[in-house]
Amino acid sequence: MGLRKGQKELVERYRGGKCAIPAIPGGGKTHCLSLWAVEMISNGYHKPGKILIVTYMNSAVNNFKQRISAELQKRGINGSKDYFVSTIHGLCLQIIKEKPDLIIANEEFEIIDEVSKIHLISSAIDEWKRYNEREFQLYLDMENLSSGKMGDIYKNWQDKLCRIMLSAISDFKVKGITPSEAKEKCKSLGKDSILSWASDIFEIYDRRLKIGGFLDFDDMLYNAKKMLETDEHLLEKYRKKYSFVCEDEAQDSNYIQNEILTLIANGNLLRVGDSNQAICGSFSSSDFTLFKGFCDAPDTMVYSITQSSRNTRDIIDLANYFVRYVRENHPVPQCRDSLLPQYIEPVAEDDPRPNPVIDEYGIKAAVFESWEEEARGVVTQAMHMIKKHPDKTIAILVPSAWKMSLVINILESRKAPFEQLDNTSGERNGTLKKLGRIIDFLAVPEDGEKFSNMINECILTGTYDSPDFADTEDEVKTMGQRELLSGFLKKYPVEKLLYPVGGIIEIADVPQELLQANIWKDFVDCLDMVRELLEFPNTIVEKLILFISEKLRFDREERAIAQKVAGDVRYLMNQNPRWRLSDLALELLSPKNMFNYFAGIVWDLKGFEPQPGVITVATYHKSKGLEWDIVFLTGLNNADFPVLLEDKFMGEFWFLKEQYKNPQAIIKSEMAKVFEGKIGRDSILESKLETISEKARLLYVGITRAKEYLFLSSYELSKGKRVELPSRYILELRQYIEEAGRI
Fold first, then answer.
1. 293 in a labelled binding site
2. Does 472 show up as a binding residue in the annotation?
3. Which of 157, 212, 245, 297 is positioned for an S-S bond with 265, CB 3.0–4.6 A?
4. What positions does the entry give for ATP binding (predicted)?
5. How far is the C-alpha of 321 from the C-alpha of 227, rounded, in Å?
């Protein structure tokens, strides 16, 4: 089976009890966990129940299912009923559906999506503000804010407050605190306390959820745990159903998830994770110390996976050096436990999947004079690497969405092939954008610009970039023809190309210049499709959407999204008869449209696979679980990757008074005081220590994404009061890289 250290022990030895698998990046934990499940099923060790595997992403669920199914088929075993793979929320939904009447009056409840959740919390804050405007303004630094920009500042504060309140509400729910309990406990804090605000807003938000018949993800966890604890028969049913419980990505578990899986497992609990990749604590209720504590428990068997064939030895050495630096020499002693002493080992030379080897030292580091210069320099180098290594996958990782926007603009201006990896772009909203462009044109078919946009983005399919990126003379010619056809379609208004005859739309004579350019057939094909779209009755919008998906030959994922849009549109138009095609087009073309959440789920199920020659642009957080041949780590500055306590921290809001600049930290401190009895904590210090620790792990994740080449970059800028400095990490790593490169 080609198993390595740690993997072999798991597959061959683990047959029950508590077991932990600490695994380094690229250690093949999915591979060995799948093989362990197959081995158990093949020998019937799991009976009388099933094996339950809980993971975090829908794509990971599919990955596990495919691997286990394929291996069982190789062995001639039909074991589809012997295992169940699910996200934690999928498992909780299954539990809740056993007796939904226990938790909500309406059995036809819905799980609220993230977009609706933001709308709901925003409206709850608006309701709270009607009676608490003084409190809302209390934290704002009015003396130092420009009166002319107060409208923007109010909106910014409201947007930030939405995220802060959702985080606080999640903490309440994870701790099992009800809205009434939260309000009662927070009375002692007074109206000026932000945690007191949170308890009020929690009550409003919870009421609106119930009125709408909604549950959010935290409700699912809380209610599933409550049902298992209070219903002995239900708990016994799940213990019999699942003989073994396995938790993947256990470093991202939270208290309530930990309790649910421990209850169901009844002693047979297997957890796999990497504490050095715990990067979700700042925006979720995850607690990476839970997995560490599980590993350290005296009754837990531990099989460590330490070998990886993902990276070159040079990249492995850099990752290990970074772990040692943090643990031994971090300038803030309290942060030296940010990374555990888990060091990556390369595989043996005779391993069937060896470490990649290149003929040069593939790691570089650079510091630029501004973010703009850094972004341009990185894009230039990335395009150079595409030409030099057209068969390699490549990624540019950025620390934040606003920094990503500049990189995207530069890539677009240089016509570089790229894909933006987030929930509102690339594949994820490409389907919605196609639908939006066509419906936008059909709403106003006489608009030449809408016609041109639809033709170029929907009907002239395929990606054609500048001749610099073409491999052959034929490709250059094809691109020239495409540009020529696009130009003609912009030049001729739609009414000159198509005209009605007796209720049928006919195609006009092909212009002579197109015949001479030898692209008349493409021209007629494009117009023929447009004619069919115009002839289709647009009074039944849901059928029009399905017709568009058929004519554009949508694949399986795109068809699923189109069907969802069609179903939702029927409901929306019944609710609001004034809704027109133009309104639907506007919604579909909006970056934050109501259909994005479902589209994200569809593409998550498919999983992301980087394509050679196409630059992936993603945040560091989005890169977790992925790998590329060539990786650029950008924006390594002291604000995004703080090392010292005096560094600038992103969680601090410039428009708030000094004592309130980090409201998230204040909430954590007050939560610990009111609900845990911990008094006298320095909330600001603790918040900074947590941020420094998590950012160290985030950089470690970034380093270990690269298989062959790795580029680290930052910038140093000083303009008046604006001072942005490189992170201490890149300065330390650059020195190591320069020395290693010389050797």
1. no
2. no
3. 245
4. 23-30
5. 47
